[in-house]
Amino acid sequence: MDTPKMRILIVEDEPDMALLIGRRLGRAGFSSDTAATMGEALEALRSISYDLMLLDRRLPDGDGADFVSVIRGLRPRINIMMVTALDTNRDKVAGLDAGADDYLTKPFNGPEFLARIRARLRQGSGGAPLPPIVVGALSFDPNARQASIEGRPFPLHKREFALLEALMRRANRVAIRSELIEEVYGFSRPVSPGALDTLVSRLRKRLAESRTGVEVHLVRGRGYLLTEAGA
Ligand code: CA
After folding, report:
1. 17 CA distance to ligand 1 centroid (A)?
2. What are the residue boundaries of the structural domains of the chain, listed by start?
3. In the CATH scheme, what is the homologous superfamily, with its name and number, of domain 7-127?
4. Is CATH 1.20.1640.10 the classification given to domain 133-228?
């Protein structure tokens, strides 16, 4: 019986480079998909559970390093390797500080490239298992991505859940409006100006009805802040 292939997402906007990497991975026994933008990568991550992602830094819709925290939000355990043509120490440090597990500098040679990927996969899941985030009676498990109230599941619609997740990960800190929109709606969709605020109103109602002891406050000009009620 075949063991399931490790699945890798290649985020690379240069078609020739993406093809080359995909072929090398295929010959080494990995299956891979390609995304040409951060928007496409997010769509892929939402539907498929990848073991590892190769993330280019210079992408049409931004710097891959700015994308790492959003990826970790969706897939806390994925291995992330930055692939970059930028080879100064400052650039490497920026990629690792952003939460990447490792980096590769272009142009790379085939054997080292594959050896680094295998080494990364042997070390297991990226990041460390994260402890639950608890606010009031509400608990959020970032590994399983589940919310519960004193041990009981807290059922929410998909977007309400995405918003709650984004706010819980930033509990007691201001969650910046643009980051919330990215995490809830993705990069590619046009979002109407009041959509986020309407969604926040719905989530507030659900939090109050279910006696979570959690409040979401507007921070004018910046975003929203989730705290324990009365804190
Ligand atoms: Ca690029």
Report:
1. 9
2. 7-127, 133-228
3. Response regulator (3.40.50.2300)
4. no
Q: How many CB atoms lie within 10 A of CB 202?
A: 14
d(C-alpha 20, C-alpha 225), whole Å? 45
Can you say how many angstroms the Cα of residue 84 is from the centroid of all Cα atoms in its chain?
19
Distance between Cα 95 and ligand 1 center (Å): 15
CA distance 189 to 210: 31
Between the CA of 56 and the centroid of ligand 1 the distance, in Å, is: 6
Domains 7-127 and 133-228 are alike in CATH topology: no
pLDDT in tens, 114-166: 888 888 888 766 655 667 889 999 999 877 778 999 889 999 998 999 899 98
Rounded to the nearest angstrom, the distance between the alpha carbon of 62 and the centre of ligand 1 is 10
User: How far does residue 15's CA lie from ligand 1's centre (Å)?
Assistant: 10
